């Protein structure tokens, strides 16, 4: 997604294009990460969402810092004045404000999902100030604080949901819990927590027909796998 720029001198027009490209790449990377994290959380894969957020947000920030620092050095080479550079910084600030709002929306969505489960999160997201700092370093650090805050929110949600799942599991009928475990064993859900999250939204009784079809299909797949393994074993013996 990101382009690392060489020390080869570029024109002012090229500099402007590269600057806008860097901002756009950062925005697209964040939007993609947010979409993936939201999808995992909606499916109940909070632990995986946490791991993805921690690794990808760190990578995005480092790429962003590297790209902007190289562009800043190129601006010096081109002789771009501080007044001219301020125009680019203002463009960057506006783009970052939009991204900041998107990140705050993610934090709110996590809280709303947890609130529907009766889970209350105590962590607040660090907000970008109304007047964003004029230095690249301060703006990158501001986003690092936001990313860390969201990471803590997801982590808190993960821990709370684990406790919640244990309580829900204790209240689910034994037969229904066996169905959930069979769905996990069949690979339809990745974990009991994910399955419970799904059925909290849909309800086991309302999904009964779908469950039966899913288990039947999973059984056929297992039988096919066993048949193939047996045939391969027979071939090895010949």
UniProtKB/TrEMBL annotation:
GO terms for biological process: regulation of DNA-templated transcription. InterPro entries: Ribbon_hlx_hlx. The keyword Coiled coil applies. Keywords: Coiled coil. This is Putative M protein (Streptomyces avermitilis)-like protein. Residues 23-116, 211-238 form a coiled coil. CDD domains: RHH_NikR_HicB-like (cd22231). The keyword Coiled coil applies.
